[in-house]
Amino acid sequence: MAGMTDEQLGEVYAFAVQLGKDAGNMLMDAAKARLGDAGQSGQAFTEKDSAVDIVTKTDEDVEAFIHRSISLKYPDHKFIGEETYSKGDSRDYLIGETDPTWCVDPLDGTVNYTHLFPMFCVSIAFILGGRPVIGVIYAPFLNQLFTSCRGRGAWLNDNQRLPLIRYPVPPIPEEAPSGCIFACEWGKDRQDRPDGNMYRKVESFVNMAAEIGGRQGKGGMVHGMRSLGSATLDLAYTAMGSFDIWWEGGCWEWDVAAGIAILQEAGGLVTSANPPEDPSTAEIQDVRLGSRLYLAIRPAGPSSTETGRQGQERLVREVWRRVRELDYRRPGA
Ligand code: IPD
C-alpha cells in the first residue's frame, strides 16, 4: 500500500472501526433522548428545539467528535467532513492523490433520522492515493456494522463476510435487469423543471420498472425497486448482494466513500451513472469519487458462459440503455 505498511493500515482500520462504533452510539443516544429516554442518554432537549435543530446539532457534534479523534491520533492526515465542507466557500473536489485523507459523513440518511426511520448511519472512509481503502458504516438503530479494508475483505458485524450469499456467489441473471433489485434515490434536487434531474430520474426509474419490451424496448421489468434514503447504506446493501443495482446522481464524496470502499472490497463494481454515447461498446471505468454520478453493481460469480466481471459489465450496459443523463456538475464548475 503506497505510503503505508500493511501493519500501519491495519492499525488505521482498527481505529476507524472503533470510531464508527462510538460515533454511531452518539447518534443513537441523541435519538433516544428524543424518544424520551433522556435519563438513559444523559442528553435532554428543550421544548423549543425542533427535530431539525436537534438533528443539525447532533450532526455537528458527531462530526466534531470524529474530527477531534482523528486529529489527535493522526495529526498529519487530511479531514473532509460533510458539515465542515458545507460551511466553507469552496465546492472544489478536495481529495488529492497524495495525502492520506479521511472522508466522513457523521449522519447519512438525515431525513430518515429526523423521522426516526431506522436507515441512518455514520459513514467513515480512509483514502490513500485518491481511492477509498477503508470503509466503516454503522447503523445503530439496525445494529448493522459494515467494515472493509483493502485486502482484508468486507464484513457485516465483524463475522459475516460480504456478499452474504457466497457458496457460490450468484452470477448476474441471464435476462438482467429482469430478476434484479434496482435501488435508486429521489435525492434533494426537486426542481419542477420538465427536463430537470428529478424528471430525468423518474423517467429512468419507470424504464427500469416497466414491463419487458414496453417503452420502445426500454422496459427492464426489474424484480423490485427500493430507496433507502441513505446513499452509503444503498452501497452497503449492494455489497451484501441484497441489491443488484444502485443508480444515483447528486451525492457528494462523503455520502459514498465508505460505501464504495466496502462494495469494491466485496467484489462489486462502481462506475458512472451517466450513459456514454454508445453503451454497448464504451469502456467501463471505475467511478471518480467526486463525480456525483454513481452506478453500482453487486459482487457476481461466474456462470457457464461468462466471468463475474463480464456479467457485471453486461448489466452496466443494460442499465445505461435505460437511464437518462443527469446533470450534477459541481457548483461553479
Ligand atoms: C443524502 C442521502 C440520500 C441521497 C442524497 C444525500 P444526507 O445524504 O445519502 O440518500 O439521495 O443525495 O445528500 O444529507 O442524509 O447526509
From TrEMBL:
Recorded catalytic reaction(s): these are: a myo-inositol phosphate + H2O = myo-inositol + phosphate
- Enumerate the residues binding Mg(2+): 82, 105, 107-108, 255
What biological-process terms (Gene Ontology) are attached?
inositol metabolic process; phosphatidylinositol phosphate biosynthetic process; signal transduction
Q: Which PROSITE patterns match?
A: IMP_1 (PS00629), IMP_2 (PS00630)
SUPFAM superfamilies cross-referenced by the UniProt entry: Carbohydrate phosphatase (SSF56655)
Keyword terms of this UniProt record: Hydrolase, Magnesium, Metal-binding, Quinate metabolism
Pathway(s) this gene product operates in, as recorded in its UniProt entry: Polyol metabolism; myo-inositol biosynthesis; myo-inositol from D-glucose 6-phosphate: step 2/2
What the entry lists under Pfam families is as follows: Inositol_P
GO MF annotation terms: inositol monophosphate 1-phosphatase activity; metal ion binding
CC cofactor: Mg(2+)
Gene3D superfamilies for the chain: 3.40.190.80, Fructose-1,6-Bisphosphatase, subunit A, domain 1
**Enzyme Commission (EC) number:** 3.1.3.25
Which family would the database say this protein is a member of?
Belongs to the inositol monophosphatase superfamily.
The name under which this protein is listed is Inositol-1-monophosphatase
Q: Which organism is it from?
A: Phialemonium atrogriseum
- Organism placement in taxonomy: Eukaryota, Fungi, Dikarya, Ascomycota, Pezizomycotina
